[in-house]
Amino acid sequence: MSTAQDPHSAGAAPAPAGYRAALAVREFRAVFAAHLLSLLGIVVGEIALSVLVYRVTGSPLLGALTFALGFLPYLLGGTLLAGVADRHPARRVLVVCNLLCAAGAAVTALPGTPVPALLALRAFSALIGPVLAGTRSATLGDVLGEGDLFVLGRSLIRIVTQGAQLAGFAAGGVLLTAVSPRTALLSTVAGFLASALLLRFGTRRRPGRASGGADVLRASLSGARQLLADRRTRALLLLSWLPPFFLVAPESLAAPYADEIGAGTVGVGLLMCGMPVGTIAGEVLAGSLLGPRARERITLPAASVLLLPFLLYAAKPSLGWALGAVALAGLGAAYTLGLDQWFVAAVPEELRGRAMTLQTAGTMTIQGLGMALAGAAAEYAPVHWVVVGAGAIGTLVVGGVVRLVVGSA
């Protein structure tokens, strides 16, 4: 397996530290930029498509379903199509996935495309999403190696994902004041096409990790069975999946909680920004100030306490205190840097693409389930007590997973 090359020749200035070391690798810069461009297009497209469906149908349910379809097919795609990530050259998979998503977005932008087709195309892109994300994560191991650069590279991908969501929602709102939703969807097409070009000409061709034989479906399912049968890998996957299940509670209930405390629409926006801002800050601080061993040492303690700030909701806090609690919980998401190192070390190379795809699919799916469960609970209990429950129950559940991880070492 190829590893990252030192970007400096002998006798030159020392290699940059921290995130700069990852960004000094030319191929990673191409992968990073491609992800940013496609992600901005996706976020703007999500808003535009949701607005388009609502305007055409006048149905709040169908407008909300447009967003939900970005989560629901992830588990299906991550389970049934994961084998694609290992059986074919990574560059080809990344380019083809981007082109397929661009084609789907282009059809949604066509005048007269019926609503069922709009929803089906949204689901189609979400079906491809875990393969694209899993292949990209596995490719980072080829581009950056399996050590600290890999961890920092994945951290940068997560940081730009959170940041692009904040910027994309703002840009999408502004764009829709000037152009129609179908015109705004062209930004999604452009993002995916630009991403495909960057990956095609900015990364090297590498062969697939797994040999042929079984068909994609069989290879995907057998890979999932192998990964889940291994005690260590199973424990690390649970540590990837379960904290986000509880973390989404205050974000998904931002609107009713803002209404509960009289914070208005501004409060909704701020509460939805709190978690991404905290997450970005936590990852940047851990990636910049801590070395690899220090990041591994804080992994389990950070995971164990990251949901405790939600207990502050018991006092039904004002907007400022609620925002602080949510941002503080986001800081704890820095546990993922050490987790990434353990995960890539635990997974056999020939299963890496399937492992990353399964991890991504599980995370996206469980966040969607967490949002739905929090909303259902808020039908029967005050919103602030639902968030408290997520913090208390989540802390107990994550504590149990932490013990599994310790026992699997």
Automatic annotation (TrEMBL):
Main location: membrane
Source organism superkingdom: Bacteria
Coiled coil regions, renumbered to chain: none
Domain Major facilitator superfamily (MFS) profile: start-end pairs: 183-409
Localization in the cell: Cell membrane
InterPro entries tied to this protein: MFS, MFS_dom, MFS_trans_sf
Keyword Cell membrane carried by entry: yes
Membrane topology of this protein: Multi-pass membrane protein
Alphabetical UniProt keywords: Cell membrane, Membrane, Transmembrane, Transmembrane helix
Gene Ontology MF terms: transmembrane transporter activity
TM regions (residue ranges): 30-54, 60-81, 93-111, 184-201, 235-255, 261-286, 298-315, 383-406
Gene Ontology annotations for the cellular component aspect, listed alphabetically: plasma membrane
Listed name of the protein: MFS transporter
Source organism of this protein record: Streptomyces telluris
